[in-house]
Amino acid sequence: MSTATSSTPPRKGEVYFLSHGGPPTMFDTASAPYKAWQKYGKMVEAARPRGLVVVSAHWENPSHSAGVVAVNTDASNPLVYDFYGFPKNYYEQKFTSHGDPQMLKDVTAALKSSGMDVSTAKRGLDHGVWVPFLVAFAGKTDIPVVQVSLPGDSDPVSAAKLGKALASLRDEGYGIMGSGQAVHNLRDYMTGGRGSYGDAFLQAIGSALHSDSPTDGAIGLFRHPAYRQAHPTPEHLLPLVVAAAAADPKTDALQDIFVQPNGPLGWGMWTWKPKAAL
After folding, report:
1. Is 96 in contact with 125 (CB distance < 8 Å)?
2. DSSP per residue over 93-150, as a string?
3. N- or C-end of the chain: fewer Cβ atoms within 10 A?
4. Contact 132, 37 (CB under 8 A)
5. Which of 184, 188, 161, 160 lies closest to 237, judged by CA?
6. Range 15-277 classified under CATH 1.10.760.10
7. Cα–Cα distances in angstroms (integers) from residue 87 to residues 16, 91, 93, 146, in the given order
8. Which pLDDT tens digits describe the chain residue by residue (278 residues)?
9. Where are the domains of the chain?
């Protein structure tokens, strides 16, 4: 990874949203989602970010205040095995990454300057981050990774505020990534439901993100007729709002990484790249 010098301005960071599915996908090497994670990894390595700021569905700040988020300060990025009932080898998987003191300062400063209160936690990376990253980066990366929590109020407006707060970090060369699931009705999926609502909601996401105002479009998904079926709880859609709000439709080009209907567990992955870099 190249490092910007004082005479070379950093390349503006890109924005990503990944669907992270379930842990079994990290072993399904022939699947389309697995290959999409690999494609994402190549994109990140080609973009050479100073670091990746990640926001996952699986970390919501315990505070219910809209303006309070937590930042992981454990630079060793230990793994959080926050899934249950899988074979032993799932809990033996390793992904090696690290944080960075300057990046931590930059992230904290960006959040505070946008009016957000920041708490800290020695927590590590949950499976919404490390499972796709294990595949994307073949088990390890030298790109610094710092995870930031979602606000704890489950409000898409608060998620948008977080995304806009992180957006300024792009000018310093950092990439921003949200990790959730485009369609996430796990109970329906586990009981064999067909999830006919999933296709319609996935199409609605595409329309929202490709609109003139992807932030408003992403927030509007929470009013979509199929929303409650596609997302019985909001946490897997909120990181998409964060990503959309961190992007700038005037200067970024949206690209599909991978979009595939899958009933109640639909896949969607997107990236926003600065048009000037294309």
Report:
1. no
2. ---B----HHHHHHHHHHHHHTT-EEEEE---B-HHHHHHHHHHTTTB-SS-EEEBPB
3. C
4. yes
5. 184
6. no
7. 30, 8, 11, 28
8. 444 445 577 899 999 999 999 999 999 999 999 999 999 999 999 999 999 999 999 999 987 777 789 999 999 999 999 999 999 999 999 999 999 999 999 999 999 999 999 999 999 999 999 999 999 999 999 999 999 999 999 999 999 999 999 999 999 999 999 999 999 998 898 888 777 899 999 999 999 999 999 999 999 999 999 999 999 999 999 999 999 999 999 999 999 999 999 999 999 999 999 998 77
9. 15-277
Q: How far is CA 71 from CA 107, 116, 124, in A?
A: 9, 12, 10
Residue 138 is encoded by which pair of tokens?
């073949």
Closest CA to 127 of 86, 188, 176: 86
Q: Which two tokens stand for residue 220?
A: 């509007």
| Structure-token pair, residue 136 | 């994307």
Residue 275 near residue 265, CB atoms below 8 Å: no
Of 267, 273, 239, 235, nearest to 253 by C-alpha is 273
Q: Which amino acid is at 53?
A: V
Cα 96 from Cα 80, distance rounded (Å):
13
**Matching residue, tokens 């109020």:** 153
User: Which among 178, 147, 173, 155 has a CA at the least distance from the CA of 242?
Assistant: 178
pLDDT (0 to 100) of residue 4: 46
d(CA 60, CA 193): 28
Instruction: Let me know how long the chain is.
Output: 278
| Cα–Cα distance list, 124 to 5, 58, 71, 147, 274 (Å) | 29, 12, 10, 8, 30
In the prediction, which pLDDT does 276 show?
Answer: 83
